[in-house]
Amino acid sequence: MKGVVAVVGATVLACTPLLSSPTVAGASSAATSSAAMPHITAKVTKQGIVVRGTAGLRAGRVHLTVKGPGTVEFVSFDPGYTADDFVSDVNKCGEKCNVKALKRALANATIHGGMTGGTGTIVLPTAGSYTPFTIGERGAVVGQPFRVSGPPRKSSAPSVDGKILAKKGLSWGGSSMLPAEGRFLFKNKRDSGVPHFVQLQQVEVGTTADQVIDALLAGENGPPPPFLEAGLLTGTLSPGHSMTVDYDLPPGHYAVICFFPDPNMKGMPHAFMGMVRVIHLM
Question: Which end of the chain is less crowded, N or C, counting CB atoms within 10 A of the terminal residue's CB?
Answer without folding.
Answer: C
